[in-house]
Write a structure and sequence with these properties.
The complex is a heterodimer of chains A (339) and B (490). Chain A has 339 residues and is mainly alpha-helical. In chain A, 78% of the residues lie in helices and 1% in strands. Chain A has 14 helices and two strands. In chain B, 34% of the residues lie in helices and 24% in strands. Chain B has 17 helices and 23 strands. In chain B, helix 12 crosses helix 13 and helix 12 packs parallel to helix 14. The longest helix of chain B is centred in the last third of the chain and has 16 residues.
């Protein structure tokens, strides 16, 4: 190889590195905004609150604001579980049905034993079990998450209706109702506390445990993760069980708040939960996302719903809005990916 | 084609290449990996545009500025790639008519489709039933079909890229008969192959490319192996010299009669502590398949592993990692890295996966990752930069760091310098030498770049058609000899 040729190669390298540096500074800015996604969502949330309180005198009342945190508690908890699934590159469509299924299982356990503790355990057990089945179908039968959970969506809904014969369960004891309606120190609703505690724990798990790291890694590149010696199957199983468990916790809170367990409850909640996670800036391809951003997403989704209610918009339109939210949130992700 | 120039990212891949194809001729293009064969073909088929140069077809100059795959097919240039462009779920007849279905009263005229299929297949004396689904055809039949379709579009130039790679002896004979038949119709064929017997059997002339230059066009009839090998390799000095260590230590790992049907068979060799064993062979010789099996990704049909003289079973990558085996895959981005995750997370992934008991363990990882970023001089803006923004060489270093962090003892490197520029290559070589120098570790270095293999390895293994055919001392062999063995195993 001649000297002049070597020189050429050297120059080329320099050019490339210059270009990289330029790219890097642009990328840094984009990354900066990208990390700000959750913060910009927080801004949108605040603006929305301001606009809604100008539009309606009922919006910015203490009662209504607590209503929003209560309503969003349910969606936020489902979104917490859904976050794990989406960060790992999957999707869980069955959360709305698992929600109803675990509520009804808990209700039946309550009717038979009269024990709140057993009822709660039964609900959460049912959620874990449904998630376990999802995971098993994905890792053993090699079904894509979309299809496996679509199947579970039907199965869990059907089981909920079969178990209670289609009749809602009423007559929950006072201790059970406290989970949804109680106030700590007379001000802060219990569900809000549950949300804050659980989100903090999950944030910690995602950031500081091997399980959390593997969740992102699988979402980023399942093949590379497997070749790095991670047991991808068992992590996937765990992810879907967590998702099922959170659907069950959300179901308990809603049952306690409304004082009843409905086999038709949770219908369409998967849409809201998935929308919340995407609004929070998670990538549809997995590997990225922050669970607190999903919480902000859930608050935003609930505020929109609540605002539409207060403004007297028919419930029928709300489905349209929910659908649009998901489409725009994912479109935002695709645009971000381009630059 | 005259004075063809092409460069990628500032690196010249083709330098003033002249190439002339006569009608009714089979013109073989030969060259080492990276010599520019596929670039040349891709320019002709319209997949790449050229930087400068002229192309004439039947004496007329072609406007290359607006040249595209569509123009190529309009001019009668058809390419038969190794992976086929057929729709597997449609029938043979449907595939033949796919680009323009005969239409009658705004509906597909199925009778005309059948007739066309029959004509096209008869044209090459092919007896495939036009109503079978393409996915049920054998590879050679699919190839025939592709050729038939190319001819039906009145192709004047057919490009075949290693067409016999997946064919049996008998199928190759049928293909050659077909080629001989096509030649009579004044169709020119550009034929890329490494197999010397084939070139002798059907080639009319041979063009050898080396480092993007045409180093000679010769008549195929009177070729001799040494002449070709000399043309392909040229006279070049060794670019990189390694201090040779003479290893007399114990084997770290030993393989006995490894076999995976259809990929490789009866592979036995050992790697000693402190040794870099080079493994080379042509594309399709089974190198990557062997590496994947050693690491437990693909299942073996037969064979035993001995790790530090103890027999072990390796059924999946997790088990391989527990024994201290690491693997740098050929496709870094696809199976080596989590691209949208930070450098830190990629470096510590194997380490974390290996800590089977601890749930936490992340607190120490920053120190660990920083240590390897410093040690391997990984150019990054910090621990949290996403890996996808790194250059090829730095990405490879991240994968290296990943295995170092997990205290790997035996590394299988599959084409570790592919797509990496000269300067970074040397850094990778030095990493390999540093790796084997300490604590009796060892490396299996897989590469199809023979000069690289010669300068890096302590011992050279050569694979051909799924078999291990030679075990050479790099001090006592030449590039010519290795190349000749790869090309012509007998």
């Amino acid at each position: 190889m001649s000297k002049s040729h070597m020189k050429k190669v050297g120059n080329v390298n320099q050019n490339v590195s210059n270009e990289n540096q330029q790219n890097r500074s642009v990328l840094n800015i984009i990354q900066y905004f990208y990390q700000m996604q959750s913060i910009s969502m927080l801004f949108i949330l605040i603006i929305m609150w301001v606009v809604l309180s100008l539009l309606s005198p009922y919006f910015f009342t203490v009662n209504n604001l607590f209503e929003i945190t209560l309503q969003s508690a349910v969606i936020a908890l489902i979104a917490a579980g859904e976050s794990f699934v989406i960060f790992s590159g999957g999707i869980d469509l069955s959360v709305g049905s698992i929600f109803a299924f675990s509520a009804i299982v808990g209700g039946i356990a309550l009717q038979f034993t009269g024990s709140v503790i057993i009822s709660l355990m039964a609900s959460i057990g049912a959620g874990l079990f449904a998630g376990f089945c999802n995971g098993l179908a994905i890792i053993k039968l090699k079904i894509p998450p979309f299809v496996a959970t679509l199947g579970m969506m039907g199965i869990a809904r059907g089981l909920a209706l079969i178990l209670c014969n289609g009749i809602p369960i009423y007559g929950l004891p006072q201790e059970y109702l406290w989970i949804g309606q109680g106030r700590i120190a007379g001000i802060v609703p219990v569900p809000t506390i549950i949300v804050i505690v659980l989100f903090t724990i999950m944030y910690f798990i995602l950031r500081n445990t091997r399980f959390g790291r593997f969740t992102y890694a699988i979402g980023s590149n399942p093949e590379a993760t497997r070749l790095s010696g991670v047991n991808v199957s068992s992590v996937t199983l765990g992810i879907f069980m967590i998702c099922g468990m959170f659907a069950a916790i959300a179901a308990v809170i809603e049952s306690a708040r409304l004082g009843t367990m409905q086999p038709a409850s949770g219908n369409g909640y998967e849409l809201l939960a998935i929308g919340s996670v995407f609004i929070g800036g998670a990538s549809i391809y997995g590997g990225e996302g922050n669970i607190f951003a999903s919480l902000i997403g859930a608050l935003l989704v609930t505020t929109i719903r609540n605002g539409l209610n207060i403004l007297g918009v028919s419930a029928f339109y709300q489905y349209v809005v929910n659908g649009l939210i998901i489409i725009f949130a994912v479109a935002a992700d695709q645009i971000r990916r381009k630059y | 084609m005259e004075n063809i120039n092409k460069s990628f990212f500032g690196v010249k891949v083709l330098k003033d290449v002249q190439f002339r194809l006569n009608e009714g001729e089979v013109h073989v293009v030969l060259g080492e990996n990276g010599a520019g064969k596929s670039t040349l073909i891709k320019i002709l088929s319209g997949a790449y545009t050229l930087d400068s140069g002229k192309v004439f077809i039947e004496g007329k100059e072609i406007d290359m500025t607006s040249y595209s795959p569509e123009t190529a097919s309009r001019l009668g240039i058809a390419t038969i790639y190794q992976n086929f462009h057929l729709v597997p779920h449609l029938t043979v007849a449907e595939n033949i008519s796919l680009s323009d279905f005969p239409v009658k009263r705004r509906k597909i005229d199925w009778r005309a489709v059948q007739k066309k299929a029959k004509d096209v297949l008869d044209n090459i004396h092919c007896t495939i039933d036009p109503n079978t689904l393409v996915k049920k055809l054998s590879i050679s039949q699919q190839q025939m079909l592709e050729i038939a379709i190319a001819l039906s579009k009145s192709a004047k130039i057919i490009i075949m890229d290693e067409p016999t790679a997946a064919l049996s002896k008998k199928e190759i004979e049928t293909l050659f008969e077909l080629i001989a038949d096509i030649k009579k119709r004044k169709v020119g064929i550009i034929y890329i192959s490494h197999k010397l017997e084939e070139i002798k059997a059907i080639g009319d002339s041979i063009t050898v490319l080396r480092d993007g230059r045409n180093v000679g066009t010769i008549v195929a009839k009177d070729i001799d192996l040494n002449e070709i090998v000399n043309l392909m390799i040229g006279k070049e000095m060794k670019a990189f010299e390694k201090e040779k260590l003479h290893i007399i230590s114990k084997p770290i790992i030993e393989f006995k009669s490894l076999c995976r049907k259809g990929y490789f068979e009866n592979i036995s060799f050992h790697v000693s502590k402190g040794e870099v064993v080079g493994l080379t062979g042509l594309v399709g010789a089974g190198k990557t398949e062997l590496a994947r099996a050693i690491f437990g990704i693909d299942r073996l049909d037969m064979g035993q592993y001995f790790f530090n003289n103890r027999e072990v079973k390796i059924r999946n990558p997790k088990e391989a990692i527990q024994y201290g085996i690491g693997y740098l895959p050929e496709d870094r981005d696809m199976s080596g890295l989590c691209l949208n995750m930070p450098v830190k997370d990629n470096i510590t992934l194997v380490y974390l996966a290996k800590l089977s008991k601890k749930i936490f363990g992340i607190p120490t990882e920053k120190v660990l990752a920083q240590k390897y970023i410093d040690q391997l001089k990984i150019k990054t803006t910090g621990l949290y930069q996403q890996v996808k923004y790194l250059s090829g060489g730095n990405k490879q270093k991240v994968i290296f760091a990943k295995w170092l962090a997990a205290h790997c003892q035996f590394l299988v490197l599959d084409e570790p310098t592919i797509g990496i520029d000269v300067g970074a290559r040397e850094e990778i070589y030095n990493l390999i030498f540093d790796f084997v120098r300490s604590e009796g570790r060892a490396v299996l270095f897989i590469s199809s770049d023979i000069s690289e293999i010669l300068s890096v390895s302590d011992r050279i293994l050569i694979m051909s058609q799924g078999k291990l055919i030679a075990d050479l001392d790099p001090g006592a062999t030449t590039k010519q000899e290795v190349m000749a063995l790869c090309l012509n195993p007998t």
